[in-house]
Amino acid sequence: MSVLAEVLTVLLNGLQQGAIYVLVAIGLSIILGTLKFVNFAHGALYLIGTYAGLLITLEINVTDGKLADWGYTPIGLEWGFLPALIIVPVVVFGVGLLMERFVARPFYDRPDTDQILLTFGLAIVIQEVFKILFGGQSYNFARPGWASGQVGLPIIGTFPEWRLYIIAITATVVVLVYGLIEYTDFGLVVRAGTRDAEMVELLGIKLSRPYLMVFGVGAALAGVAGVVGGPLYAVNPNIGTEILVPSFLVVVIGGVGSIAGAVLGGILIGETLAIMVAIAPQWSQVGIYVLAAIVLLARPQGLLGSEEVAP
Amino acid sequence: MSDEPTETPEAADETGSVVERTQRELPSWERVRESELFVVGATALAVAVFPWLFARAPVISGVLNGYQDLATLILIWGIFAMGFNLLLGYTGLLSFGHAAFWGGAAYAAGVFSAQVSSSPVLVILAGTSFAALSAWILGFISLRRGGIYFAILTLAFGQMAYYMALSPLAWITGGENGFTGVQLGKLFGVFQLRYPVPMLDWLVGTWKYVLVGGVAVLCVAAANRILHSPYGMVFRAIRENDQRAEFVGLNVWRYKLMAFVISGAFAGVAGSLYTVYSAYVPLSSFYWTTSGEVVIMAVLGGVGSLFGPILGAGIYLYVENIVSGIQQLTLPFTGPNEWLTLVEEPVVLLDGFGAYWHLILGLVFVAVVVLFPRGIWGLFQDLGGALRRLGGSAVKRLGGGR
Taking CB atoms and an 8 Å cutoff, what residues of chain B touch A121? Predict the structure, then answer.
């Protein structure tokens, strides 16, 4: 294996790692940029997405937790991965709508700190509910059969097929969301609302529905991330909080409210992780925080963030 | 505290209310309650009787089921939450990275005790200085962004500390196993920490509690002094409106940084005390759930008051240690093993209750954030105020009044 092949493999791994962060971070970023609402429960949406995906994809055996007590030890529909990829975002979209209406909306006028505290508490509650239902143990979210093999690539040689699918799915979703925000009337209203919500309302456009949709879309993206990322790690009730911190870093590095920023930040963090794992595995996790510190010291509003959108 | 009616109209007069305050001959009850001597004295008294009330008093301890070490732990976390509240409740900055200072101090204290000196006082000083220093550095970076970004950044750098301790620094921190080499000598070279206090062991138990309790009283005194000084006034001004504080000519950024350092130092005191308490530093003391716990404690008890967070710490640890052991939630006064039993057969409300403690605490936390932004302590204050008003109006109706 040549040096070039190794470098390319590492970079491709970084891209795949970053792809998950991108999916989670875009939702965080547009919710934060448009609604000025900081959602510490976004990781919990990822958690919901993963478990929903788990239930749809395979018949899982629950050995402890409330569901087992009630007699539902084997649960799940065994519909396969593609249905999960379509159904889960819809489900989590619904959860997002509920969250906007009943959690976020009453708190738009409260201080930032109250929003953080509320969503933090909500994240704990959701995590605990899942712990009670499914027990604390880890499940294996098998990758779909059609993508479990290795694929031959030029120069690199073989590469796990699933990782390429992750990159492809993420790229598709990002393009769709980018199109939605940049080229539709809905996106126009959202972008205008990000700039100056008061002016948009004065023009006679009610922002409550676009806001609802933004929250739903952001949540759905976290759901997609849950399904796509599920097979990468063991699934347990803590994954929501574990993905939250790096995703926030992606938002901060990329710049709030910017989709391109979230993509750039996600790729940077993913590549940093992959490169550090390759050259200094001990420091791999520390590396992303150092990266965040450097970016902040040099450019506090984030790489692609603008000063007025992000106070 | 700011919205409490502490100032009577004459004190708020245009000519220097401070002078008037000292010249009053007979201070009212409100004034006495505000005075530093009273606050510190009452705290000292409460700290002295707390373990007895909690673990050994007749009837009360039977109901509470508490134990001596839990009382110590509550004081330690109380200091942590109180320091955290100096930042959140008084300066309005929400940090999710205070585990870095708690854990940093705990590790620094542990390493110091093993390498330099095992004197408990020096160990605490070493841990505290380390925490204050790291708070300075992290605050310097995190305070480049305000509001929500500050919360995210502190969270991120707290996690960075966790991963630093986990692997690159594992040769000194012990990595996943935590730091086990804590050495503890005698307090002032005389008192062995784990020995009971002669004559007074029925009240305060061991010297360890005396040390923790003494430090806790000092911390309350320090926090009280800071909050009632002009410096603390600036913190409150920044919380209310930092732009206006800036226009008045205050260097807001500097004050915020100092608030962060002070609160980091309190976390450091608590973290080093924890090392003294448990003679072991677990890696999880760096994990961000530790920051989350202190956030919950402070908010649950009530931000913006001196004692609210300590109450919150007490409630949290009590639920975590005692309530989580309860297998069945029964109606009060039913079933055996209670000091007052009305019905012999226990009436079970919820089976496997202990497993839900985290969920219940989470729900209570959400309810507090939504309904009582000033926490349980604020709720007590409001209730007390309502009672007093009720009494006042009754007096007025009877033709009395002041």
Answer: 296, 362, 365-366, 369
- The CA distance from B360 to the nearest CA of chain A, in Å, is 8
Cα B84 to Cα B266: distance, rounded to the nearest angstrom: 8
Pull the structure tokens for residue A85.
Answer: 């990829």
DSSP label at residue B206: B
Q: DSSP characters for B32-64?
A: HHHSHHHHHHHHHHHHHHHHIIIIISTTHHHHH
Q: Which structure tokens are listed for B128?
A: 């505290």
Reduced to 3 states (helix: H, G, I; strand: E, B; else coil), residue B102 is helix
Residues of B in contact with A32 (CB under 8 A): 148
Answer with the residue of higher pLDDT: B29 or B306.
Answer: B306
pLDDT tens, residue by residue, A172-208: 999 999 999 889 988 888 888 877 888 888 888 888 8
Nearest to A145, CA basis, from A229, A68, A213, A82: A82
Tokens 């806001």 belong to residue: A211
Would the pLDDT of B132 be above 50? yes
**CA A163 and chain centroid, separation:** 16
Neighbours of B3 (CB within 10 A): 9
* pLDDT given for residue B338 in this prediction: 54
Distance between start and end Cα atoms, chain B: 24
Give yes or no for residue B7 having a pLDDT over 80: no
Can you give the pTM of this predicted structure?
A: 0.86
Residues 47-106 (A) with a CB less than 8 A from some CB of B: 106
Identify whether the C-beta of residue A251 lies closer than 8 Å to the C-beta of residue A265: yes
CB A296 within 8 A of CB A35: no
Testing the interface with A: which of B96, B148, B154, B239 to mutate, by most A Cβ within 10 A? B148
Handedness of CA B146, B148, B154, B157 (dihedral sign): negative
Which helix (H) or strand (E) segment holds residue A13: the answer is helix A3-35
A3 has pLDDT over 80: yes
Which run of H or E residues covers position B370? helix B357-371
Residue type, B306: L
Amino acid at B242: D
In 3D space, the residue among B293, B323, B321 whose CA is nearest the CA of residue B309 turns out to be B293
